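Ticket #4471: structure export looks truncated?
Reporter: QA, pipeline team
Priority: medium

Steps to reproduce: submit the single chain below to the structure queue and open the exported record.
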Amino acid sequence: MKRIINYVFIYTLILPMSVRSQHTASMNTGLRRALSQPVNSGRMVSLIVKSNNPALEEITKESGGIYKFTIGNLSSISLPLNKINSFVKQRDIISIEGLYGSGKLFDEMTLVNANVNPVHQGLFPLAQPYDGKGVVIAVLDDGIDIHHPDFQNADGTTRIKFLWDQTSITGGNIPQPYNYGQEWDSDAINSGSCTHVEPYYEYGHGSNVSGIAASNGLAVNNFYGVAPASDLLVVAVDMGENFLNNVVDATKYAFDKAAELHEPCVINASIGTYFGSHDGLDLAALLIDSLIASQSGRTFVCAAGNAGNIPFHLGYQIQTDSAFTWFKYAPNIPGVFFEWWINKSEADSFNFAIGADNTNPFFFEGRTKYYNLKNDFDLPSGAPSLMDTLWNAGLETGIISINVQAFDSTYSCDVFITSANTSDLWRFITNGSGKFDLWSGLTTTGTSDIIYSDLPDSVSFPDISRYKVPDTQETIVSSFSCSDKVITVGNFTNRNQYIDVNGNLQIFTSDTTGQLAISSSFGPSRDGRIKPDITAPGNRTLTSGNLLTLQNLLLYQPFKVALGGLHNSNGGTSMASPVVAGIAVLYLEKKPAANWKEVKDAILFSATKDQYTGPDLPDNHWGYGKADAFAAMTNIISYGCTDPASTNYNSDATVDNGSCIYLSEILTQHKNFSFSCFPNPFHSFTNFSYDLDQNSNCKILITDISGYIYNVIKLHERKGTVSFENPLQPGIYLYLLQTGVRILSTGKMVVF
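Actual output as written to the record:
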């Protein structure tokens, strides 16, 4: 998977122990940082706005910005950086997010290990072979080698319907309403006017991903993708500071272009960021959710990340006795920086302090007071900040800047320290109660490394007995990867040997085919949901290569090049994700009107288990198991109540949709009430009589036995009779008395 995070961590310094606040819309950390810079430029910044202001488009344009689109109360816009502070003061601007940071890329036997071949062959019980024809596979990555034969038809014309290079400035058309980058359609590519070049420094990542998802095998009559007849759409995503906003725009672009072609669309994103809340509740993730759910025939698949063996997560239940963890100076910042998250419900009893230690020899240089979010920060202002200075023996040890951001159900708090001595280690000290989470590391989030090795012993440094080390248990990427509407994919080893371009057998004894890759990132999400959702073969996959990269590999690392010289070995969750994306394409070829949930359920509930996964799934390593294309394609998805003890049990349902209704579900506060239906059976009409023991916000639901609701009658009085004129077909139905989400009474009625 490709990840990008590069922040400039410089804060405007103000007086020690001062607090600054203002009433404004909430912002994410990266955007707030940029606005705090002494030089506030007029450069254009992509933003996502949560707003109930009906004049948002007009306000955006009046501020010199670009309005792109709105779904619900979330909008994608761009504004000059120096206009944002005035923009957020406009009426009904609730929150605004942008500059989340940069992103990263993440990376034959695939068709065997994912059981794709029977689908291509159309084996029973499938009615026909499936190869992805009539479905768009949209690859959001670093680009693609448009000249590779696997992405061309037999006559040499391109299979790529549309290509948007978000970083290019010339050679094509500027796509609207986004107003950046260059785009080309298939005619432009065929005419030779497309100037897109896949970046050489990413070693053909996008071509590799595209090949696994959609190669037609034309180059060497081998190395077919999972959906070899699908239509390709490629977005070369700008991985810079606007990364997540760019992914949002790419998602809208892909779905819109597929709609122009009148085809379903599956997006594969083998890209992501480890920075953020890891709960899928940032505005970028929510807007992507809305795009996925707004229409059937849409699916979004992404890589889980390749940080499963990197201890960059810190999180634990806080105790009354203090505990601490060290953070290291990062020269790229320069300084010490980390960000942590906590639920609002747990924040009041959570206390923290910042301290410092000299390392040669180890000795404690002191700490700040203990801070409490409720008592020490002006939380109602929406963006409180605090600064402090740590002193030791009359000398300044460091200046500490703390910024708190309030979201709907959480707080984020970032700490930035300018240290007088760059070799000092800085303590994050906790006590009280509650649980927090943070993710920090130079190679993952671009922030300070957490110290986990070469710790002093308890004899020479007794404080070390209270030290908390980081873990590898919540290393999943953040933002959209943590969404329920996105299928997030882990990686197991695809193969451990192959014949290279020179005919030599390459054997990798350290790899075991079918075993989870040590680097495959783990969940859960910060709010405890299973991630990844599923795993697929990734490591040691042979796939379509970038032609320039292949030339260099042939010179210096020919063992990585496959027979024929046009494919190379790659791995990681980046290469596992397009396997599942390809399966989703096959499913939408079969059922083009399926929504995101049906596609996801078909893939997850047909996943296989083996000696490597173990029987106890789902878990946060394997998700629901290993992707199985044939099982997914033959899996019958029918929603309804699957509990025989319910009143609306549906024997045909294969997936429980939470609609089960039980006669025992009676609210204790309604001890005396009556509810009846007469006449019953009936033909043209019936009456519902009710007498409740108290005034309640009640309603009558009329459903079929599967739980489908045909009619809702709201009750405005404590006692009465309402008539129901029958619009129903003859059959057996249920009538239910409901208050809130609870059922007070259920009965059956017969229509003849």
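Status: closed, not a bug. The export was complete when the record was re-opened. Leaving a note from the reviewer for reference: The two ends are 60 Å apart (CA to CA).
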